[in-house]
Amino acid sequence: MSFLKDALSIFKKSELVFIEKIKESEDVYSFLFKKDDDLTWKPGQHGLFTITHKKIKNNTKPMTVASIPSENVVKITTKIGDTPSDFKSALLELEAGMKVSMSGPVGSFYLKDESPTLFIATGIGITPFRALIKQIEEKQTTSNQFKLLYFASQNEHIYKEDFKNFDVDYITTNEQLLQEIDEYTEKHKDTGQYFIAGAKAEVHMLTEHLKSKHISKRAINKNVFMGY
Ligand SMILES: Cc1cc2nc3c(=O)[nH]c(=O)nc-3n(C[C@H](O)[C@H](O)[C@H](O)COP(=O)(O)OP(=O)(O)OC[C@H]3O[C@@H](n4cnc5c(N)ncnc54)[C@H](O)[C@@H]3O)c2cc1C
C-alpha cells in the first residue's frame, strides 16, 4: 500500500510561494518557498517543479527537496552557470510572493531502516543528503552509523554549516573518494547500505566500483541527476 501511496503522490500538485534565494557558492543557488500545511515528503525525495510566471520551453524539471518538512520551507538547490537554461533563468527572476508549482513528492531515495549507511555525493548530488542528514539529526538516530563522502572541486562544497555535527569527509580527488569507499566496504561489507547521488557517469562509475567490492545491487540506492 505504501508503494501505491508513493506512486499516486505524483498527482499531488502544490503552488509554492517564493520567499528568497541564497547564493551557496560561485554558481550554486538555493531557492526557498513557503511550505503549505498539507504538503509533506520523505527526506531524499524530489518534486517536479514547473515555472508558471512566464511561458518557456521545458518548463518542468525534477529537483530534489533539500529541506525537511519541519523546517517549514521547500528548499531546492541548483547549479546555474554563465549561460543558464530558460528554466534556471526563470528561477533567478523570481521575486518574493511569486509562485512555482510542484508535483509530487516522488522517488524512493529515502532511508528505509537504520543500518550502517554510507552516503556518497558528487557535486550538486549533495542536495538529497542535506535532507537525509537533517532527518537523522532530528530523529537523533545514532549518527556513528552514518557517514557522508562529499566529492566536489575545491571551494565548491556547500551546506558546510548544515553538516557541522555530522561525520563528513570533504573530498576533491577521485583517488581519495575510492580509497574511502574501500575502507567503508571493508568494515561493513554487505551489511551496510549505500546511497549515491550525482551526475549519471559518476553514479554509474561508483556503482560499478561498489559491485566490484562485492556489494550487492540490493544495498545500493542510486539517485541519477539526469540533465547533468
Ligand atoms: C531525481 C532527480 C533529482 C534532481 N535533483 C536536482 C537538484 O537537486 N538540483 C539540480 O540542480 N538538479 C537536479 N536534477 C537535475 C535537473 O532536473 C536538471 O536536469 C539539471 O539541473 C539541468 O538543468 P538545466 O535547466 O540546466 O538543463 P538543460 O536545459 O539541459 O540545460 C543544460 C545546459 O544547456 C545550456 N542551455 C540550455 N538551454 C539554454 C538556453 N535557452 N540558452 C542558453 N543556454 C542554454 C545551459 O548551459 C544549460 O546549463 C535532478 C534530476 C533528477 C532526475
Can you walk through the features of this model?
Residues 9-112 form the FAD-binding FR-type domain. Its cofactor is FAD. Keywords: 2Fe-2S, FAD, Flavoprotein, Iron, Iron-sulfur, Metal-binding, Oxidoreductase. The protein is of the alpha/beta class. The protein has two domains: 2-106, Elongation Factor Tu (Ef-tu), domain 3, CATH 2.40.30; 117-224, 3-Layer(aba) Sandwich (Rossmann fold). Helix content is 25%, strand content 32%. The strands form two sheets. A six-stranded antiparallel β-sheet has the order 4-3-6-1-2-5, with helices on both faces. Strands 9-8-7-10-11 form a five-stranded parallel β-sheet, with helices on both faces. The longest helix has 15 residues, at 174-188. The two termini are 33 Å apart. The protein binds flavin-adenine dinucleotide (FAD). The site of flavin-adenine dinucleotide has 24 residues, from strand 4, strand 5 and helix 2.
General form: globular
Bound ions, cofactors and other small molecules, one mention each: flavin-adenine dinucleotide
Q: Whole-number average pLDDT?
A: 94
Which homologous superfamily in CATH is the superfamily of the largest domain?
A: Nucleotide-binding domain of ferredoxin-NADP reductase (FNR) module
**What number of domains?**
2
Instruction: Give Rg in angstroms.
Output: 17 Å
- Share in β-strands: 25-35%
Low-confidence stretches: none
